[in-house]
Write a structure and sequence with these properties.
With 320 residues, the protein is α/β, with parallel strands linked by helices. It has two domains: 129 residues, ATPase, nucleotide binding domain (Nucleotidyltransferase, domain 5, 2-Layer Sandwich); 174 residues, ATPase, nucleotide binding domain (Nucleotidyltransferase, domain 5, 2-Layer Sandwich), CATH 3.30.420.40. The protein has twelve helices and 13 strands. The strands form three sheets. A five-stranded mixed β-sheet has the order 3-2-1-4-8, with helices on both faces. Strands 11-10-9-12-13 form a five-stranded mixed β-sheet. It has a three-stranded antiparallel β-sheet with strand order 5-6-7. The longest helix is centred in the last third of the chain and has 25 residues. It is globular. Bound molecules: zinc ion.
Length: 320
């Protein structure tokens, strides 16, 4: 029998709400800017409103909801706590959503959701050792080891974006830590890495189209790279170097059979970021380096993972 679930992906940029079925098909979707919310309580109410509209439009009765969100989380309370990429320090989700939807709800780290999606409907089907990495506004990961979804005491295991990759600690991460991978290679980190490199390589910087832009985004750094800008080449080569360190740590920690990569920065620039990447990672590992590939779930990895969780595909994070 086909069942329907509510799937939510709360990202630093968009919050997306969808309804899908037991075949892993997303039937309807709404989205809004996460930063539009004016109070911590507004996030749950806007999610519930969107879910109710979708259910009415599709004429279905969802059985449960699951939310994948940028962490860190308080899993007992189902709240986002102190996320560097969120507009408020504490955002309650599970309790208000249960009340507003009248359904079982679970809240989990977005990358934990994504790796569930990858194993249920993506490239990780049948694999017991699998890591999903997102390179987006931030950097995060989710992992199965020996068939077990890794959660940790507070559901925040596999926060790989906060691995220290720069012993000189030149950049401060959104979390307040120094030298963290996310501060250098994420969508928010890349422009700041570029600003840092503009000081050490002023000649390349002055000739770069980026130097006349004032503020620029990671996307614009990659555009300049594609146009042959030497400064952008320097930035991207440093980004890739830090990615090599990050992925090498992942391979050494988890010994996965497959690593899939998602998130807008990786999805839009996989041709640059993953070219010859596996060989470079193997220079820094004791473990065998597995295949490293873009997720076939594309930008829907978190949503599909939340859907799989809502529909009870992963015993460890059942809605309640
Ligand atoms: Zn950090």
């Amino acid at each position: 029998m086909t069942m329907f679930g509510i799937a939510v992906d709360i990202g630093g940029t968009y919050t997306r709400v969808a309804i899908g079925d037991t075949q892993g098909k997303l039937l309807g979707l709404e989205r809004f800017y996460t930063r539009e919310i004016r109070s911590p309580g507004e996030l749950a109410s806007r999610i519930a409103d969107a879910a109710k509209r979708l259910a009415a439009r599709l004429g279905v009765d969802p059985v449960a909801a699951a939310v994948g969100t940028a962490g860190p989380l308080d899993p007992e309370k189902g709240e986002i706590v102190g996320s560097p990429n969120m507009p408020f320090k504490r955002i309650p989700l599970a309790e208000p959503l249960r009340e507003l939807l009248g359904l079982p709800v679970t809240v989990l780290n977005d990358c934990n959701a994504a790796v569930v999606g990858e194993r249920t409907w993506g490239a990780g089907k049948g694999l017991d050792n699998l890591v999903y990495v997102t390179i987006s506004t931030g950097i995060g990961g989710g992992a199965y080891v020996d068939g077990e979804l890794l959660l940790g005491k507070d559901g925040n295991a596999v926060e790989v974006g906060h691995i220290v990759i720069d012993s000189e600690e030149r950049l401060v991460c959104g979390c307040g830590g120094r030298g963290h991978w996310e501060a250098y290679s994420s969508g928010t980190g890349i422009p700041r890495l570029a600003a840092l490199l503009s000081q050490s390589s002023p000649e390349l910087w002055e000739k770069s189209p980026l130097s006349s832009m004032g503020e620029f985004t990671a996307k614009e750094v990659f555009e300049a790279y594609r146009a042959g800008d030497r400064f952008a080449e320097l930035v991207v080569s440093e980004v890739v170097r830090y990615n090599v360190y990050g992925f090498a740590a992942i391979v050494n920690y988890f010994d996965p059979e497959l690593i899939t990569v998602g998130g807008s920065v990786a999805l839009n620039n996989a041709d640059i970021l993953l070219r010859g990447f596996r060989e470079r990672v193997s220079g820094y590992t004791i473990n065998r380096v597995p295949e490293i590939r873009v997720t076939p779930l594309g930008g829907d990895a978190v949503l599909l993972g939340a859907l799989a969780v809502a529909l009870g595909f992963e015993e460890k994070v059942r809605p309640r």
